[in-house]
Amino acid sequence: MTATPAPSPGAAAPGDFLRLDEQICFSLNAASRAFGGVYRVLLKDLGLTYPQYLVMLVLWEHGELPVKKVGEHLRLDSGTLSPLLKRLEAAGLVRRERSARDERSVQVGLTEEGAALRERALDVPRRIAAATGADLEEIRALRARLDLLTEALDRAALSGPALSEAPGCT
Amino acid sequence: MTATPAPSPGAAAPGDFLRLDEQICFSLNAASRAFGGVYRVLLKDLGLTYPQYLVMLVLWEHGELPVKKVGEHLRLDSGTLSPLLKRLEAAGLVRRERSARDERSVQVGLTEEGAALRERALDVPRRIAAATGADLEEIRALRARLDLLTEALDRAALSGPALSEAPGCT
DNA sequence: CGCAATTCAGTTGTGCACAACTCAATTGCT
DNA sequence: AGCAATTGAGTTGTGCACAACTGAATTGCG
Asked: B156: domain range?
């Protein structure tokens, strides 16, 4: 008995909790990575990674934006965006320049090439939808649930020093 | 007019597709990262990251396993697991040794300390469930949907050279 | 005005995900 | 037995996520 693999078959309840735990978080993670795989294939032609594609979506929709705003749309901070944007700039898809009005801020905009890339991305969503095998209504419902979940988790993380403390916060 | 931010307000349909695209994949991604944030807080005490926690869950449940099997449970390959397991070994939580039966295979097992850590992880699931603010039934339903989605995406990725080609594959 | 607090982008360091590869052990086929 | 194909773990290189930090610009308050 070097490391007691099965602690005790009688202790069903706590064991079940640790299995149940895999429920959402793991399924979510797996689904997210499965999407990543499909996007990787589809976006290879465009020379984009999935996070880069998200940035391009934001820019196609909103035009020129400060880095801060891009981050708000995507829930990403400058630690992630700065190098990512630098790569997009190196690829010739985006342009970055310090705002004249506020020298702290950097405006991110599309180059001609970046704007043109939109045309080639137009049928990505349809192909993704096809890969999911789900109809639009189901997708909508799932998305609504996930957004609620994210909101709840963010709230818990903020008021959440209590999270790592006593569970008695009714 | 350096890069035409808003292509044309009249072109509603294609624009909507590119926005709709954000639907699941982005929500999924955001939810996954939101979970990550909550887990990060909860697991800090245990000295584990979330992926490390997943590995420990597998080992707590199944005892000693070859690296391959751990990867199958978690959908991770050796490129991810090898360094992760090395860190868990350095932390004194797991043990790795070449199988005598098959010298290619490496058995991963718990140390005393790793097995003992289970006790301290027992209330992580409850705290996570509390942070989601969802009841168990809702969680179950969501998980089922996500697993179906993952399955569909994996299938698409496999038969999916067609994915990046003509959409006429009925 | 003058200075402390805040804001914004960027850097550094750690860890994960994944593709592409190496290398040894094993299996299967003849 | 002999050898090609496969399998399993590991390494390398790229890119993302995030914490912690730096440094410059701006804001706000007395």
From this structure: 123-160
**Same domain, yes or no: B37 and B84:** yes
B58 inside domain: yes
pLDDT tens by residue, B34-92: 999 999 999 999 999 999 999 999 999 999 999 999 999 999 999 999 999 999 999 99
Say whether B170 sits in a helix, a strand or coil.
Answer: coil
Map residue B97 onto helix, strand or coil: strand
Output DSSP code: residue A164: G
B46 and B113 share one domain: yes
Q: In 3D, which of A11, A13, A20, A148 has the Cα closest to residue B127?
A: A20
In a domain, A132, yes or no: no
Domain assignment present for residue A112? The answer is yes
For residue A112, the domain's CATH number is: 1.10.10.10
Number of cross-chain residue pairs from A and B with Cβ atoms under 8 Å apart: 256
Strand D positions with any atom < 7 Å from protein CB? 7-13, 15-20, 23-27
A100 assigned to some structural domain: yes
Q: Which residues of B touch A127 (CB under 8 A)?
A: 163-164, 167
d(CA B158, CA B165): 14
Residues of B in contact with A63 (CB under 8 A): 3, 5-6
